[in-house]
Design goal:
heterodimer; A: mainly beta; 1 helix; B: mainly beta; OB fold (Dihydrolipoamide Acetyltransferase, E2P)
Chain lengths: 111, 99
């Protein structure tokens, strides 16, 4: 499971069987300092997440298992809305402070 | 399985029922020498891990269902599970050539 932020919605009127009524949201994957870690993607929403909310999502086959109808072609699903991160790592501490500039941070320099 | 270090915990009220009562921890992947690779993820803790612990994480759904005592056909939208606390990992042990 990974962190992400809801950055929008996705509407598809023609879709695979079993996906009717499934809410699709655009998610930007984030690290614990809220920095994007990759390209946005579409995820099925199981928790009624709202715009800009910090969420966690699950990928692969387990994403489909989060849905009512679970034999469906879904590879990402939002499974929780995050209230709080109680973090100890340098990048995570920066997230708690709401800072973006992290000394020694970045993809490989955290510690 | 992945070697990781626990860097924090996460609180979520609105969540899929499968996560009810579970502890969700923030983890960073580490190399055997303890250096973070930059990859982060969340995992359900089934080994009573704490912040700073080096842990062993299974990232695959069937193993997760097994840890939860479920059948392979049961529905569990969980992939990453902390299944052990690592005492030490020795790169180059047994005469192997390190990276």
């Amino acid at each position: 499971m990974r962190l992400g932020r809801v950055i929008g919605t996705c509407v598809a009127s023609r879709k695979s069987d079993g996906l009717d009524g499934v809410r699709l949201l655009l998610v930007e994957p984030l690290d614990s300092a809220r920095r994007p870690t990759g390209d946005p993607f579409v995820a099925a929403d199981t928790v009624s997440a709202g715009p800009n909310e910090l969420v966690y999502w699950v990928g692969a086959r387990e994403a489909a298992l989060a849905l009512e109808t679970h034999f469906v072609p879904i590879d990402a699903a939002i499974v929780g809305i995050i209230d709080e991160i109680d973090a100890a790592g340098p990048r995570a501490r920066a997230f708690v402070r709401g800072r973006d500039d992290v000394p020694g941070g970045g993809a490989h320099g955290a510690r | 399985m992945k070697l990781a270090r626990v860097t924090g915990s996460v609180v979520a009220t609105a969540k899929h029922p499968a996560f009810d009562g579970q502890t969700l921890l923030l983890c960073e992947v580490i190399a055997p020498d303890g250096i973070a690779t930059g990859e982060e993820f969340l995992a359900v803790d089934r080994a009573k891990a704490g912040v700073g612990d080096h842990v062993l994480v299974n990232q695959e759904g069937n193993g997760a269902r097994q840890v939860f005592g479920l059948k392979p056909t049961d529905k569990l939208p969980i992939r990453s599970v902390i299944v052990g606390i690592v005492d030490h990992a020795d790169e180059g042990a047994l005469g192997a050539t390190p990276r």
